[in-house]
Amino acid sequence: MKVLLTLTDVEPAVRLNAMLEEIGHGTELASPLDDIRATLERTRPDLLILTGGLVDSYYLQLARLQLWEGGAVVGLAERDDAELRQRLRVLGFADVLSKTLPVEDLFEGIRRVLERQRLSRETGLIGQSEPIREVLVKVEQIAPVSSTVLVEGESGTGKELVARAIHRLGPRRSRPFIAVNVGALPDTLLESELFGHEKGSFTGAAERRIGRFELAHTGTLFLDEIGDIPPSTQVKLLRVLESRELTRVGGTQVIPVDVRVVAATNRPLRDQVAEGSFRADLYYRLNVLHVYLPPLRERKDDVPLLVRTFVRDLSRQHDRPFHGISAEAMQLLQEYAWPGNVRELRNLIESMVVLAPGREIQAADIPSAIREGGEGVRLLPVRISRVEQEAVVGALGGRELEFILRNLVELKLQVEELRRRLDEERLRRAEWASEVHVPVSGVHGLEAGLESAMSGGIGPSDVPMPSNAIVLKAGMPMADIERAAIEATLRETRGNRRRAAELLGIGERTLYRKLREYQPELADEESA
User: Fold this and answer.
1) CB within 8 A of 442, min separation 6: which ones?
2) Phi, psi of 257, deg, nearest 5
């Protein structure tokens, strides 16, 4: 790799130059008497080492030019200054080392930066933070072997990039790399896509089809969103992974396959195993080697580097000049939580490149959702696990209440969604976000009333209060919601308990038991 050292401080520059040449790097020294900018533009080094002048505007301009061209910058400071180091790291310096250290320690720090540069270039994974450095090192370690790899990380973190890097750095690099998004395929077609099928094996199978395992023979098969694979296919996938042979759908011939499998998921598979939706034996078979790809909010130091890389690449792709981003705007991008991770950041940068105002991007040009987003939130509805559902059902005391429970849980999610929408629209009365008056006819009426309220964007004054309405408040106990639903349904049916039980989806005995709990006087009337 090419290194350019400034001769601002001659002694460490000359010694470092000799040590870098000794391990095979091409180096060049630039004197302050020379036009260092011209040398920088001519040589286009992978690394620029500033041996002094770190607070000088001229050297900082050189550093910015180097960073926007995709290279790295290391600064040598006169002393160990934590504040200066932090300021320069925010600007994009890969590292700031103190010249009070022995030259051997300076060399070791520079060598680590060059190693990260090499790995980033070979893998396509962009970053210089400690979390991404760990990923790069692990990818390089596991690439030479053929063991199965499980990559876990949120959507948009770059799991396919990791899979491709493992393939590119390994001995199968010249063989096929086949990617399959398991979650995008219908269950009825997934088995045929993976293992192939014979002509006439099912309706519509007009000819033989070669599956992805056979297409990836001697290469790498990337199974994205592996957590979405149905149980029936999990069994067959496990069989293929263990035996290294498959049989096409509708066929009898056993076909050997030599494939390295890299699987990825945006949900922890261990949790799915605990829920019972994913086979434990398949999980252990996939999780021989493991890579965790951290979300962007856990490596915010990489945001400036990602921004510069995306700006450079997208400006060339769209043939659009870009005039840069101010420090305040960059700080906003670095502080945002990025729930969509690197994919969300790249999409934002592409829109900024295409719609750039012809000047440097300022903080006011950043979308308000990012300026005001802070750490961000995850909006409801959320997935409720089978274990959680069964626990709540048991707490309510009977399988006969399962139907009501599931509707009440869904109702709670809808109430939260309604609150969010009303907050965004800034309705006149703030209390509408925490109290909702809904006319109902049993549980089904609850759902319909909420759906109507959400779609119409109505406020308190727009909703009359009929006699069969119930009042729902955020944080209202489930028992109170259940009692209100029973009482409102009895009013709706004019006391016809059989009809009320049908609307509520429960048995009459269950209704009578609930009445004895909530309205003893009504139950006494029945016995009389």
Assistant:
1) 485, 489, 492, 500, 503, 504, 505
2) -135, 140
Which two tokens mark 410?
A: 């869904």
pLDDT in tens, 468-526: 566 666 667 777 788 888 888 888 888 788 888 888 878 887 888 888 776 665 545 54
Residues 145, 141: Cα–Cα separation, whole Å:
9
Which pTM was predicted? 0.65
Query: Between 478-492 and 442-456, two packed helices, what is the crossing angle to 10 degrees?
Result: 100
Q: pLDDT for 443-468, tens place per residue?
A: 444 444 434 433 343 333 444 445 55
In single-letter form, the type of residue at position 328 comes to E
Six-digit token pair at 434? 């925490």
Angle at alpha carbon of residue 436, lines to 431 and 441, rounded to 5°: 170
> How many CB atoms are located within 10 Å of the residue 494 CB?
8
Task: Catalogue the E-assigned strands of 324-385.
Answer: none
One-letter amino acid identity for 331? Q
Share of the chain above pLDDT 90, in %: 40
Alpha helices (H) along 287-356: 303-318, 327-335, 341-354
Say if residues 474 and 419 touch (Cβ distance below 8 Å).
yes
Which H or E run contains 262? strand 260-265
Cα–Cα distance between 146 and 143 in angstroms, integer? 8
